[in-house]
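Homework help board

Subject: predicted structure for assignment chain

Our instructor gave us this sequence and asked us to write out the predicted structure in token form, then describe one feature. I got the tokens but I'm not sure how to describe them. Can anyone check?
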Amino acid sequence: MTAHAPPPIEAAVPLARREDILTARKTVRAAARALRLGAVDEARVVTIVSELAKNACVHAGAGEVRVGTRHLVDRDQILIEVEDAGPGFSDVSAALAVGFSTNGGQGLGLPAVNRLAKSLTIDTRPGKTLVAALFETDRA
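My token output:
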């Protein structure tokens, strides 16, 4: 008997308040569980969405999280996109460096996302930033 692939998940979570970060976390956790990711990988994708959603709330005041899944023959993918209308990054390379912060934080969030994601794309300008993190896991 062959296992059936889970249906793809497409979800959007508006970020208007810090409490919406919890909704984004629940959404990506549900996506990870639908793909039957292990606890460690689930924690990784939840960390990614937490950091990106928090940045949108703190620096832009609002935004939107989009989560999509793909179940491929040999691997599973979760794409997390966070879009906002904030000031943008003046220096993406600096923002990805450990310790860089514009608000007095520790500067660990984006570097952690960059480490955890298979790929990280940041398209930014004043008034619009789109951060896309692709998480991928091989299936044993």
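Reply (TA_rk): Your tokens look well-formed. For the description, you could write something like this. The chain has one domain: 10-138. That's the kind of observation they're looking for.
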